[in-house]
Structure formats: C-alpha cells, structure tokens
Amino acid sequence: MSSRTSMMDEFESVFKSSVRPHVEIEPLRFERLLMVLDCCGAQEKRQAVVACAADLIDRHKQLETRVIAPCRPEASSEQAEALLAESLETLSRAGEGRVAGQVATGSPHRVILDHVKDFAPSMILMSSLFGENDEDLETYTLGSVTDRVLSEVSEPVLLIEGKVDDVARMWSDILVYVEDQNTAHACLAATRTLALKEANTHLFHVIDSEWLTQVGRAVELASELDSGKTKEAIVRSLKRDMDHYLSAAAEALDRTGHRAATFIEVGDPIDLTRRQIWAGGHRLLICNSVAPDQKLIDSIAYNLAAYMREIPLLLV
Questions:
Q1: How many CB atoms are located within 10 Å of the residue 120 CB?
Q2: Which residues make Cβ contacts (< 8 Å) with residue 107, sequence separation at least 6?
Q3: Taking 80 as the threshold, does the pLDDT of residue 220 lie above it?
Q4: What's the average model confidence in pLDDT over 190-216?
Q5: Mean pLDDT, rounded, for 107-118
Q6: Are 256 and 192 in contact, with CB atoms under 8 Å apart?
Q7: Rounded distance, CA 90 to CA 281, Å?
Q8: Which residue from 29, 196, 219, 259 has the highest number of Cβ atoms inside 10 Å of its Cβ?
Q9: Rounded distance between C-alpha atoms, residue 158 and residue 299, angstroms
Q10: Residues 190, 316: contact at Cβ < 8 Å?
Q11: Which residues are paired to 208 by β-bridges?
Q12: Cβ–Cβ < 8 Å for 66, 37
C-alpha cells in the first residue's frame, strides 16, 4: 500500500464511525392537539386542517383537542364564531376524545403562543400561510403568523397548505428527512406514533454539496491532497457513517410494524427532498431541526417549511 493510499484511508476515517449503533424508538407522547383555525384563509385550506384533526381524533382515542380561532381586534368575530362552531361539530363526531374551542381576540401569533403555553400541546396543527391571502406568497415564504410561531416554539408543528386528497394516506406513506443523528430520534418517535401499521417509511439524508465544496477547498489549501479525491473520500465516509445509523433506525421501525427503506443523496437538501417527494409519491414529510437552541428557525427544516407546499410537513 502506497503512503498516498494510506494517507487517504486515514483522512477518510476521520469522518466515519466504526460502530453501527443500536436504535430503539419510543413513541411520541401524543395526548393534546392544538388546532389553529384560519378564519380568513380559503375554505379549502381550512377544511384540510379540520379533516386532518378529525382523522387524528378518530385514530387516537384519548386525544384531547383544543381549537382556537384567532380574531384580530379590528375584525368582526361573527364569522369566526360560525366557522368555529362548524369545525367543533365535525371534530366532535370524529371520535371519543375531548374537544373544546374558542374564538380568541388579539394578535394571532400572540394568541397562538399564549395557548401553547397554557395548553402544553403534544402537537400544533395549522396552515402554512395562516391568515395570508396573497397568492404570490404561496411558493416562496411562510405566512407572517406561522413564521413567528415557528421562531418561538419547540413543540411539533404540523403544517398543511391546500387540499389533502386522502388524509389517511398521510400516515401510510411517510418521508422522514434525517438531518443529523443527534436530532433524528424525535422524527422516528413521531413516525412510530403517527404511522399506520405496515406504513411505508422512507428515511432520507442529503450530504450538502455546498458544505462539501467548502471542506474540499479548505483541505486543498491546507494539504497536498487533491480536492476532488478528498471530496470523494468525505462522501464515502459520511455515507457509510449515516448508512450505519439509517439501517439501524429502519430495522427499529420494522420491528414496530412498519416497512422502512433508506436513501442517501449528495446535493442541495431542499431541492433533493422535493425531488424525492415527487418521485416517491409520499404523503407526509417529517423532519427536525439542528438549530443550537432546538427551535426551528434558520434550519433546513425551517427552509422546507418556507418553500415546500407539495405535502403536509411535520416539524418536530
């Protein structure tokens, strides 16, 4: 073995783990659902959120559900009261769990945050563009209310935008974006809790090509190794390391009655995740944040929330 080959092997070993982890997945505690009713948005969007909540109430018999209809101080509450009553009737017929609701007057994001603090929900359910009617926003950004909520909560948030053709299929074909091993467990716990038995679950990881370029350039400047070769070595080692984890996680999901597969790509995380959704026909995306404060702001998960409208997105 040449000294150059030995050097490359040593370089590659820096990025990989030699031990395959053992993964056990405890289910997410799912006891309280906070549903936020958008009384200003389109009827189709509102119906999709209500239909999702009704399905969760039907499948999780002990779920306690609180519905809030934020109403700005300058707006009339009559429409909000009527839409709330209609939604509560639908949800009450869905299952045995407790369902209650109220129209809450005030700044919408502050109303939501106050109820999060008071109710301590296991999950928040709302539309991606809450309170927004500007079609120009729908492809590029979050509604300002949703944006502010995501920046201040650490509870799981399920975002729905537009019609959901078959709510039950959300829980039978799930794409799980695994950004980092340290934060993946919450995604797997949510998958175990929400997925139907024998659901197809796809664990998906992307090695960021922009990060690889930066590392390769740094190595090229700091050593005698060729940047192209070092990038290939980094990709191989990172793939092996993440494959160890994803394979163990897939086996853990299989043990709980699901059918799991794993995928690792190299490129732009947002673009490749959207391509995976289109190619795989998935009905729900689950992902987590690796932000230092464990909130969702300024992460890949947050950017997926801002730009991805194809299917519902659960941020945990």
A1: 11
A2: 72
A3: no
A4: 89
A5: 93
A6: yes
A7: 29
A8: 219
A9: 16
A10: yes
A11: 267
A12: no
pLDDT tens digits along 10-19: 666 655 555 6
C-alpha dihedral, 110 to 53 to 313 to 149, nearest 10°? 0
Q: Tokens at residue 4, please?
A: 């150059």
Residue 139 corresponds to which amino acid?
T
Q: What are phi and psi of 289, to 5 degrees?
A: -115, 145
Q: Which residues pair with 103 in a beta bridge?
A: 69
- Beta strand extents in the chain (DSSP E only): 32-36, 64-71, 99-105, 123-127, 157-160, 173-177, 200-208, 259-267, 284-287, 313-315
Is the whole model's pTM more than 0.90, yes or no? no
In whole angstroms, what is the distance from residue 223 CA to residue 203 CA? Answer: 35
Neighbouring residues of 98: CB distance < 8 A, sequence distance ≥ 6: 64, 65
* Average confidence (pLDDT) over 206-217: 83
Q: What are the structure tokens assigned to 188, written together?
A: 């797997």
47, two tokens: 């119906």
Domains and CATH numbers, the chain: 19-164 (3.40.50.620), 166-316 (3.40.50.620)
State the pLDDT at residue 267: 92
Q: Is 25 exposed, middle or buried (0-12, 13-18, 19+ CB in 10 A)?
A: buried
Question: 224: Cβ–Cβ under 8 A, 6 or more apart, which residues?
Answer: none
CA distance 237 to 96: 50
Please measure the distance between the N-terminal and C-terminal CA atoms of the chain and give it in whole angstroms: 47
The mean pLDDT value for 20-37 works out to 89
Q: What percent of the chain has pLDDT over 90?
A: 43
Residue located via tokens 């995976």: 276
pLDDT at 292: 47
Query: Per the structure block, which two tokens stand in for 109?
Result: 């994001």
